[in-house]
C-alpha cells in the first residue's frame, strides 16, 4: 500500500519505518526542514533502540522516503496517518491546531479517495472535527479513522511490530477493510485488532494512559507511606504484584511520571471531563501527587543539608524521563535541576543519550560530564534520576574516591540499602529505610 505519515517524530518515524518494513511504500512528511534533511542523509533524528537497522534497510530498499512537501506526499497515498503533536494548550487541554491545520491543508489538496487516520492522542470528538474541517472544503470522498498509538519510547519498534492490540475507531467498512489488511502482518500471533466507534477509540488511549499514571502514582504514595512507618516498598510491591488481578508491572515507585504523554494526557482527560461537567477527582489527585513526587528527592536532599544548598555541588545521573530514550519532555531530572539551581547549588550531569537535548535547554547554566564517573568529581552528593542499566552496577570504590562525601540520593531504587550502608554510604531511596 502507499502510505503518507504526516509528522515524523517519535510516533511518526516509528510508524512510517515499521509500515515500510512490512512491504508498504511510505513517505514521511515533516515541516522541520533540518530534520527531513538529516533523514534523507540516512541520519535518525531521535534515539530509539533497534530503529536504525529498519530505518536504513527500508531507505536502501526505496520503501521509505522523506519530504517537506505535503501536496506531493499525499498524491499517491491512499492512506494518510497524522502523527502530529497534541501539546497542552494554554488551559491544559489538547491543542488540536496541528491536526486541524493539516486536515484543512489536505482538504485543499486531495483529488481522490483517502483514508485519513489520526494516530495522535486526541480528545473524544476530534475525528468528528477533522471530518467537518475536510467535508466543509471538498466533495472528494474520504474516511476518518481514529487509530491511537500505544508504543512506549525505548521499546517503540517492538511495541509497534508486536502490539498487544490495535485499536481502530471507524464507522466506514471501506476504511475498516484497508486497516485490517494493513495491520494483519503485525498481529499474526493472534493479538486482536479491536474495531470500535471513533469516540471509544479516542477515549481508550486517554483511559489507558490515565490508568497507568494512576498506578504509578498509587505506588508512589504507598512508598512515601512506607518511609513513614518503616515498611519496605520492595516487599510490599512483590506481595501486591503476585496477585494476578494487580500484576507485577508498573508497580515500581520513583520520582514521579514524566515524558511527553502521561502528564499531558492525564491533564487533557481531566479537562475534557470538566468541559462535560464531569469531575475526574481521581485524576486531579494523581496530578497533584505527581507534581510533589517529582521533587521528593530534593526534599530529602534539603533535609540532609539542613535546607542550605547554597554553594553545594551535585552530580546527577540520568536526564531522560526514562531509560532507553533521549526524550526529556517533563523529565523529573529537569525539575530537580531547576530546584537545585534556585537554591544556589551547582550541578553536573550525565546521561547516555539525552545530553544534547539538555544542553539545548540549559546551555552553560549547568556542567556536562563526558562519562559516568566524571560527573562525581568534587560533588557533595550523587542524585539518580533515571534508571539506565549503565548505573545499576557501578564501582562504589570510584564513587567514594570522587565524591566529597559518601552521599547518594537514589530516585529509582537501583541499589540495595543494606549493601550501601555496609559500604559506609549515606543512601536514601524511595520507600525503603
Ligand atoms: N511519544 C510517544 O511515546 C507517544 C506514544 C503514543 C502516542 N503519542 C502521541 O502521538 C502524537 C505525536 O507524538 P510524538 O511524540 O511523535 O511527537 P513529536 O513532537 O516527537 O513529533 C511531532 C512531529 O510533527 C512535526 N510537525 C509539526 N507540525 C507539522 C506539520 N504541520 N506538518 C508536518 N509535520 C509537522 C514536528 O516537526 C515533529 O517532528 C502526540 O499526540 C502524542 O501524544 C506519543
Description:
- The chain is an alpha/beta fold and 433 residues long.
- It contains 17 helices and 14 strands.
- The strands form three sheets. A six-stranded parallel β-sheet has the order 3-2-1-4-5-6, sandwiched between helices. It has a six-stranded parallel β-sheet with strand order 11-10-9-12-13-14. Strands 7-8 form a two-stranded parallel ribbon.
- Strand 13, helix 17 and strand 14 form a beta-alpha-beta unit.
- Helix 1 packs across helix 3, helix 9 packs across helix 12 and helix 11 packs antiparallel against helix 12.
- The longest helix is centred in the middle third of the chain and has 32 residues.
- The protein is globular and about 70 Å long.
- The model has no long low-confidence stretch (mean pLDDT 97).
- Bound molecules: nicotinamide-adenine-dinucleotide.
- Nicotinamide-adenine-dinucleotide binds next to helix 1 and helix 5.
Amino acid at each position: 500500500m502507499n502510505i503518507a505519515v504526516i509528522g515524523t517524530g517519535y510516533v511518526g518515524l516509528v510508524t512510517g519505518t515499521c509500515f515500510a518494513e512490512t512491504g508498504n511504500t511510505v513517505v514521511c512528511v515533516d515541516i522541520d526542514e533540518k530534520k527531513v534533511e538529516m533523514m534523507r542523509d540516512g541520519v535518525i533524528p531521535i534515539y530509539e533502540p533497534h530503529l536504525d537497522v529498519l530505518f536504513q534497510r527500508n531507505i536502501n530498499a526505496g520503501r521509505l522516503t522523506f519530504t517537506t512537501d505535503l501536496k506531493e506526499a499525499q498524491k499517491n497515498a491512499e492512506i494518510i496517518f497524522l502523527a502530529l503533536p497534541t501539546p497542552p494548550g494554554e488551559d491544559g487541554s489538547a491543542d488540536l491546531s496541528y491536526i486541524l491545520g493539516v486536515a484543512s491543508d489536505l482538504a485543499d489538496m486531495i483529488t481522490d479517495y483517502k483514508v485519513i487516520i489520526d494516530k495522535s492522542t486526541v480528545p473524544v470528538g476530534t475525528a468528528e472535527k477533522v471530518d467537518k474541517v475536510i467535508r466543509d472544503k471538498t466533495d472528494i470522498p474520504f474516511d476518518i479513522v481514529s487509530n491511537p498509538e500505544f508504543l512506549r519510547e525505548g521499546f517503540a519498534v517492538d511495541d509497534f511490530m508486536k502490539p498487544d492490540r490495535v485499536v481502530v475507531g471507524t464507522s466506514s467498512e471501506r476504511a475498516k477493510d484497508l486497516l485490517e489488511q494493513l495491520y494483519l502482518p503485525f498481529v499474526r500471533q493472534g493479538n486482536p485488532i479491536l474495531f470500535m466507534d471513533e469516540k471509544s477509540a479516542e477515549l481508550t488511549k486517554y483511559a489507558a494512559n490515565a490508568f497507568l499514571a494512576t498506578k504509578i502514582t498509587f505506588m508512589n504514595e504507598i512508598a512515601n507511606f512506607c518511609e513513614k512507618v518503616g515498611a519496605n516498598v520492595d516487599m510490599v510491591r512483590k506481595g501486591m504484584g503476585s496477585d494476578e488481578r494487580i500484576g507485577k508491572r508498573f508497580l515500581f515507585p520513583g520520582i514521579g511520571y514524566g515524558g511527553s504523554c502521561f502528564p499531558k494526557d492525564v491533564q487533557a482527560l481531566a479537562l475534557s471531563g470538566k468541559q462535560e461537567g464531569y469531575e475526574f477527582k481521581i485524576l486531579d489527585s494523581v496530578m497533584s501527587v505527581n507534581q510533589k513526587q517529582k521533587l521528593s528527592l530534593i526534599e530529602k536532599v534539603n533535609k540532609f543539608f539542613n535546607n542550605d544548598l547554597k554553594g553545594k555541588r551535585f552530580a546527577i545521573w540520568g536526564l531522560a524521563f526514562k531509560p532507553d530514550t533521549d526524550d526529556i519532555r517533563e523529565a523529573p531530572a529537569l525539575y530537580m535541576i531547576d530546584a537545585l539551581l534556585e537554591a544556589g547549588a551547582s550541578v553536573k550531569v550525565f546521561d547516555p543519550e539525552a545530553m544534547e537535548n539538555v544542553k539545548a535547554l540549559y546551555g552553560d547554566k549547568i556542567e556536562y560530564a563526558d562519562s559516568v564517573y566524571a560527573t562525581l568529581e568534587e560533588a557533595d552528593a550523587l542524585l539518580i534520576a533515571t534508571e539506565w542499566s549503565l548505573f545499576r552496577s557501578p564501582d562504589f570504590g570510584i564513587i567514594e574516591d570522587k565524591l566529597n562525601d559518601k552521599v547518594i540520593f537514589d530516585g529509582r531504587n537501583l541499589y540495595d540499602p543494606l549493601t550501601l550502608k555496609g559500604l559506609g554510604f549515606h543512601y536514601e531511596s524511595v520507600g525503603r529505610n
